[in-house]
Amino acid sequence: MITLYGFAISNYYNIVKQVMLEKEIPFTEEHVRPGSKEEAVLTCSPLAKVPYIRTTQGSLCESAVILDFLEAQYPAQALLPADPFAAAKVRELITFLNLHLELVARELYAQAFFGGKVSETTQISVRKRLDKNIPAFQRLARFSPYIAGDMFTLADCVAFSNLPLVGMASRAVFGEDLLLRHGLDYKPYLKMLAERPSSQTVMAARKAALTRS
User: Fold this and answer.
1) Which of 118, 144, 155, 200 gives the lowest tally of CB atoms within 10 Å of its CB?
2) Which phi and psi angles does 202 have, rounded to 5°?
3) What domains lie within the chain, and their CATH numbers?
């Protein structure tokens, strides 16, 4: 059985968790915060990042790597198209969501969510990059009805956890949701995904973790 390590507030933890729920993979969860100095953590995740998993074969870190492993190891309930090019287009969307949207918006999180302050220089830089990257992402995303087309894929699990953070962080710091400002009406899409049992399980655990924190 797989053990998933991390915590329920982490968007990348929730992405991996949702994929395992969608694929009906048996797993257990262990609470681990990032930045641990424990050798047991560093052996599995050398940068002490979460999530990571332990399997009967060993451990894996980095969410994109974990998703690829899960898809290959558990082909039932496929979350990638069988066609190699179509599968690559899903991975392309994941890369844009992770690197060009969420990772950029992450620079705002200290101010948006944790009561800190982000420098004006950083704000200007993030705004400039999001204003460029969001329209680029729109050229790839299909929302028909899912982000890559008519099949629910790994990219939808990524979008469900990451798009709200980009919207909330930009609204908190800039006074407007930059996704909506660029005409990306993603709210109906998220509402549709929220009806999935896997989404509800992830959201319930996240809400409970936020209540405890």
Assistant:
1) 144
2) -65, -45
3) 2-73 (3.40.30.10), 84-212 (1.20.1050.10)
